[in-house]
């Protein structure tokens, strides 16, 4: 995978450098963790924004730098061969004070959406001392991440295929008497066993009425035969995320469950059928939402139909009533209609697809409990 | 624990309100996750700074508010009874636009160390519209968190005692042939089994030469009899963190290992003996560092002796050559001297203590492989 990630980083770096040229910026300081990984392949993780594992300093031309501390320099050298690794002792600002003049940078862009106010104050003071211009940018790298390259799509396919395998392995072990928390731990343990870096979000497992909460936190409730099991799970593989949901019943579902499940599945199919390059996120959302509304469950579907997935598990574009972005080939989105009824429970079915010119490519091979 | 946490939050809230009075601020906006939990008991976790689980708006007097979205309102109501819960749909700024005039707030403080530049721009615009003054604060709540109340110390004791139990449970299962990653997963699984919320940091397990890296990431290396095992682990219980390290050998240690281990242990004892209210962090560091230097390993100890622990696993005060803070009774610190030799491996022994007027209270009851 290292070669593929290097190719992704190389192409991304060239695009950012071209963008810097257009904006007349000499360099961009990158702090946002997924942007950093995208542009370099460097995979160290931050312990929150206050304990960063490093920054990229990308000049409009010439060799980019990766600035980090002694804990991470070996990893940075191994993972980001295209970057000059700069080890700081007292932190970012001190490093910039040395590097910016050396690299001849006079117009520095920074990420407004991932720069603490306290750091901005220090950057401002530095800019004054070095007589350079500091420019806030927003979404510069994020906007490049939305449409994936063929290499990235391979990694997304692999992450989603692994998610399918993890689900199927865990599904085979679901038993009555298990708690939600135990099942969530089984799933997350299986992810690691099968080679995932980590879950892409905290696994959701909800039994019975708990499934009425779209973001249920797994608790001590134990599974009884005949009740709903809702699982929403994702993992990270080579930096790329997967995300899928399945809902099923251990034992025989009753007629009401079957009817509702089939309705959610029909909505999912309608959403997928509406996806193709050139269509807006809100149109796709509407196609699925109409099916639920026609079935009498319009009010029971309170969230958007889907979201982009890539290095982040939630990214652009949004499939929702307010989703204005136009889909393009190479975007990756979830299609996850749901139905939530407070006293009864909920059903959510979620697949991931790649947007193509003519339609979409379904990434999930798993079809457990989809068509009943 | 809920009663104890409510008492902690209540006392903390009163102290912050008094501080706001002194600073002539009408209110403080709190975003930093540990500060938020400290002041409210609300335990939801952010998915990074870009996906916050909520904010506190604390007026200098009167009822404080907790601002969050629909996913978290039930949890917020249950956990933060002293707060008025405000559910926002379009986010923080919109909520503030309604609440600030309603609450008569004209001087608003915010956390410079946990506010994104992009949010600050929007807060500035809001301040202009509402004709209020926006004031950057730094460390206002953090500084209150450094000295723990008796209720907090009870929670720290409990977190550390549970860490001891987890270590002992895992230690009993260590076998040759296990990989570092397997042992780390065994430890983290045991934490959850025994009731921890989560690890307080990614568990470090390093075998043999890998122990020479203070922040080693557990890998596929399998344990061989006679080689060093270094474990650094911590957990979160009721919001409070623990942190401990042990180093041992499966089988018979050789004379060189024994000599080095005893030296690190002697440095740890010297550090602990130096701790008491009124002493500076650098003095404590020096007491331990001298022992290692006298034994010929001054260069092999590259990090500080310890750090504060509380709601965050790394917080003030620092025990290090540059640690200027003066210790006070009720602070909680780690004492973790180490010795790292690139071709050989490393030894680190870490306990947690509470600073008292006369000395310190050792929190770790575990004495596995300390005195050899």
Automatic annotation (TrEMBL), chains A, B:
Domain of life: Bacteria
InterPro entries assigned to the protein according to its UniProt record, in alphabetical order: Creatin/AminoP/Spt16_N, Creatinase/aminopeptidase-like, Creatinase_N, Pept_M24, Pept_M24_MAP, Peptidase_M24B, Peptidase_M24B_aminopep-P_CS
Pfam families per record: Creatinase_N, Peptidase_M24
CDD domains according to UniProt: APP-like
Location of the Creatinase N-terminal domain: 13-147
Ranges where the Peptidase M24 domain occurs: 154-357
Gene Ontology MF: a single term: metal ion binding
Keywords: Hydrolase, Metal-binding, Metalloprotease, Protease
Keyword ATP-binding: no
One GO biological process term: proteolysis
Protein name per the record: Peptidase M24
Biological source species: Desulfobulbus oralis
């Amino acid at each position: 995978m290292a070669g593929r990630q290097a190719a992704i980083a190389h192409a991304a770096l060239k695009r950012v450098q071209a963008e810097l040229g257009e904006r007349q910026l000499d360099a961009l300081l990158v702090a946002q963790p997924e942007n950093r990984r995208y542009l370099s392949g460097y995979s160290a993780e931050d312990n929150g924004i206050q304990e960063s594992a490093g920054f990229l300093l990308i000049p409009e031309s010439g060799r980019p730098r990766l600035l980090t501390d002694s804990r991470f320099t070996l990893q940075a050298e191994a993972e980001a061969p295209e970057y000059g690794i700069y080890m700081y002792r007292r932190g970012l600002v001190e490093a910039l004070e040395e590097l910016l003049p050396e690299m001849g940078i006079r117009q520095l862009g920074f990420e407004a959406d991932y720069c603490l106010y306290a750091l901005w104050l220090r950057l401002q003071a530095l800019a004054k001392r070095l007589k350079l211009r500091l420019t806030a940018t927003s979404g510069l790298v994020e906007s490049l991440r939305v449409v994936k390259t063929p290499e990235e799509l391979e990694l997304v396919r692999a992450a989603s295929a692994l998610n399918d395998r993890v689900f199927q392995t865990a599904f085979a072990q679901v038993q009555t008497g298990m708690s939600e928390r135990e099942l969530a731990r089984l799933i997350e343990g299986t992810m690691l066993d099968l080679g995932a870096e980590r879950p892409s979000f905290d696994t959701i497992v909800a039994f019975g009425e708990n499934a009425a909460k779209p973001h249920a936190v797994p608790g001590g409730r134990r599974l009884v035969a005949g009740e709903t099991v809702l699982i929403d799970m994702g993992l990270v593989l080579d930096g790329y995320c997967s995300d899928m949901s399945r809902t099923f019943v251990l034992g025989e579902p009753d007629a009401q469950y079957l009817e509702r499940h089939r309705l959610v599945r029909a909505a999912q199919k309608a959403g997928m059928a509406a996806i193709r390059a050139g269509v807006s996120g809100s149109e796709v959302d509407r196609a699925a939402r109409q099916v639920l509304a026609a079935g009498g469950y319009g009010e029971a579907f309170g969230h958007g139909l889907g979201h982009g997935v890539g290095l982040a598990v939630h990214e652009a574009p949004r499939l929702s009533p307010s989703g204005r972005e136009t889909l393009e080939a190479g975007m990756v989105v979830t299609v996850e209609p749901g139905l939530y009824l407070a006293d009864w429970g909920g059903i959510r079915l979620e697949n991931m697809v790649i947007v193509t010119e003519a339609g979409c490519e379904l990434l999930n091979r798993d079809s457990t409990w989809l068509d009943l």
